[in-house]
């Protein structure tokens, strides 16, 4: 296999990681108006895909440098490397821009406003009322979420000797 093809094949791994990263940018979960992006912008920008891309391209660069210094790299092969490297940089920049300027879903916008409003209301309530609301909320959460689940669990029998 010639060096030109080997260089292009090494970059295939990078393009796969770029593709996986791009697929995650607009993935959503939820229903109708209550959809949210699965991955936050921070999670996407600090994803393992970025680390893999940097690791792979660093290894490719080290190989190219080694081939160049040992005289095993033609100018055409060097141009292939620079072309693939620039193409990778452009693609990563494009994906990162899509991540940074991704539009929030309707629910993500409303949810943030709702949480902020609720926090302001709670901040202005007397401490005793806050405590009573919290205890009431915990009791309701237990009754509606946990109690039905516990009732469905099979009874455990304890063996005595």
Note down, in words, how this protein is organized:
The chain has 161 residues and is an all-alpha fold. The protein folds into two domains: 3-103; 109-149. Helices cover 75% and strands 2% of the residues. It is built from six helices and two strands, in the order αββααααα. The chain has helices at residues 3-25, 41-45, 48-69, 75-100, 106-123, 127-152, and strands at residues 28-29, 36-37. It has a two-stranded antiparallel sheet with strand order 1-2. Strand 1 (28-29) and strand 2 (36-37) form a beta hairpin. The longest helix has 26 residues, at 75-100. The model has no long low-confidence stretch (mean pLDDT 84).
What is the count of β-strands?
2
* Count of helix runs: 6
Q: What is the succession of H and E elements?
A: HEEHHHHH
- Based on CA atoms alone, the radius of gyration comes out at 27 Å
Q: Main sheet?
A: 2 strands, antiparallel
Instruction: Estimate the global geometry from the Cα principal axes.
Output: elongated
**Roughly how many Å apart are the termini?**
74 Å
What's the mean pLDDT score?
Answer: 84
The number of distinct structural domains comes to 2
What fraction of residues sit in β-strands?
under 5%
Contiguous low-pLDDT stretches (5 residues minimum) are none
Q: What structural class do helix, strand and pairing data support?
A: mainly alpha
Oligomer: single chain
Strand order of the largest sheet: 1-2
What is the helix content? over 70%
């Amino acid at each position: 296999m010639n060096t030109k093809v080997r260089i292009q094949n090494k970059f295939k791994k990078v393009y796969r990681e770029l593709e996986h990263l791009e697929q995650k940018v607009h993935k959503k979960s939820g229903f109708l108006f209550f959809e949210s992006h699965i991955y936050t912008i921070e999670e996407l920008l600090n994803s393992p895909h970025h680390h893999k891309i940097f690791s792979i391209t660093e290894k490719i660069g080290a190989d190219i440098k080694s081939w160049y210094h040992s005289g095993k790299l033609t100018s055409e092969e060097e141009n292939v490397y620079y072309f693939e490297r620039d193409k990778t940089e452009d693609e990563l920049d494009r994906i990162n821009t899509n991540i940074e300027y991704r539009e929030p879903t309707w629910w993500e916008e409303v949810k943030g406003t709702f949480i902020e409003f609720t926090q302001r209301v709670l901040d202005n309530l007397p401490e005793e009322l806050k405590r009573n609301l919290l205890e009431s909320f915990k009791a309701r959460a237990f009754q509606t979420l946990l109690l039905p689940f516990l009732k469905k669990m099979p009874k455990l029998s304890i063996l005595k000797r």
